[in-house]
Amino acid sequence: MEVLLVLRLCCNCTYALLYKPIDRVTRSTLVLHDLLKHTPKDHPDFPLLQDALRISQNFLSSINEEIDPRRTAVTTPKGEARQLVKDGFLVEVSESSRKLRHVFLFTDLLLCAKMKKTSVGRHQQYECKWYIPLADLTFQTLDESDSCHSIQVLPEHEIEEMKIKISLLKSEIQKEKKAPKGQNRVERLRKKMNEQESWLLLHSPTIPFRLHNKHGKSYLFLLSSDYERSEWRESIQKLQKKDLQACVLSSVELQVLTSSCFKLRTVHNIPVTSNKDDEETPGLYGFLHVIVHSAKGFKESANLYCTLEVDSYGYFVSKAKTRVFRDTAEPQWNEEFEIELEGSQFLRILCYEKCYDKSMLNKDDNEIVDKIMGKGQVQLDPQTVQSKNWHMDVIEMNGIKVEFSMKFTSRDLSLKRTPSKKQSGVFGVKINVVTKRERSKVPYIVRQCIEEVEKRGIDEVGIYRISGVATDIQALKTAFDTNTKDILVMLSDMDINAIAGTLKLYFRELPEPLLTDRLYPAFMEGISLSDPAAKENCMMHLLRSLPDPNIMTFLTLLEHLKRVAEKEPLNKMSLHNLATVFGPTLLRPSESESTKGQNITSVSDIWSHDVMAQVQVLLYYLQHPPISFAELKRNTLYFSTDV
């Protein structure tokens, strides 16, 4: 009997604690309904009663999720529905540091929130950082006299290194899944990968998206994709075409709206792969070959070009850009690009009108803003793109149709160094064969490409990083292979990124890496030495051990890359960036050597294995004082060449 009394008392207490406050609000809501029915609309208390009723209704709606699980709106002070139009995670620059925010676009305002830290077992909640009524929001640029947010951009090599670390973690997770009792370690690795992917998501975006309110306050987001920036801008501008009135939320109204965001949101997790289910497709790894053929549907002639974006590591990045086709309504580009895919699932194409009018200069970014004419995306279906044949497709965008073709090469195929069947050319032919035939110390193709890059491409932003047009590179490859007489004329007329791409392709297609298969294990051991003197002796000894054509070519390339890095303020290519581009190309062993003695479980393992060490080897030599061939050969007399 006593136990029953205690239980009844506990139940009453629980009811009082959990349900009485809600019960009171419910009763108050009913009373407010009755009061409003009997209160004249011109009575001074009528607006206050309306506000009180609306706040009560929103509170009850946010509490009772089971009754209304798919609510998409809250009620405004005028009794209208405040609909959620769009939401997503964006990086905000606040107080000169990057912050990950969840941004909510409603029919009448934009709200920027952050997720509150909550104890285990409690519901997650948002905290409002700021909001702007759409009636007060503008995209106008700041005057030069106004203060401009400082954007901290990390060196590109740090971003690339983090990608490699994530790739290695993914491989490790796959191995542990197959191991007995590996589940606990898998969870730890997933947590670490989530942290690294979140870091990447925070530090990768660089495209500014600025918002201003009528009071002069401005906010800055950084996005990784112009496509995404355009989507946000268009969504806001579409809502602003309506007759919007400026709204001011009371602290209670703001709190209710912010609380409702948790339930209204359509994007629940930050877009990192560690948040995806194991059953979800991992995306494509390898190279996507895309030919942008043509476009039609433009209403008038303009200067037109396209850019290509693909997703990797949870965000989209721009990978290629066509030439500007001038003064036409039906551009015929017919340009081919090779795009590296890193777990990619979508291809986006954006069509722009090139603006040459300097009066359109964006004072925030000191760049002329080109107009987006249309944009669209296609899913990269593995079954469609992995066939050997080209797959033709059309993207329709804002009345414009862009025709393109694509095919995919997996990483296991793209990693192969395949010797050329024709030994009369230069691509796929051993370097000593080429130099002996040419009676030169350094292959002609290397000397000519370097000369052209230094003549007119050394100041080019992203030289050696930005892809050249594949059809141009193929034309140059054929010209060098057939020893065409007008090769110098071709070089002088060709886009500089195509020439840079041709040089990279030459080294990538060598049947054996420039630093040789035989010495590869020794280079990997040498770069890992911790004693500086021992490392110096080992790394110099390894250079001496290379065949003479390899040494001369390597030293020629080394000095060239140093000269490129001297122009880093203009071309944005540091020694580390150049080492990231060329390291794997110069060191990655041929297929037979790369898999020897290694337990490789996936294509991703092959790709990521030793990549960081390969970059470090080249970086060591790039950071080393000038190395002379004569000095190396003199020292050969005092050192054994057996490795």
From TrEMBL:
Domain PH: 83-241
Key word Signal present: yes
Gene Ontology cellular-component annotations: axon; dendritic spine; membrane
Compartment(s) of residence: Cell projection, Axon; Cell projection, Dendritic spine
Domain C2: 266-395
Principal place of residence: other
Protein name: ABR activator of RhoGEF and GTPase
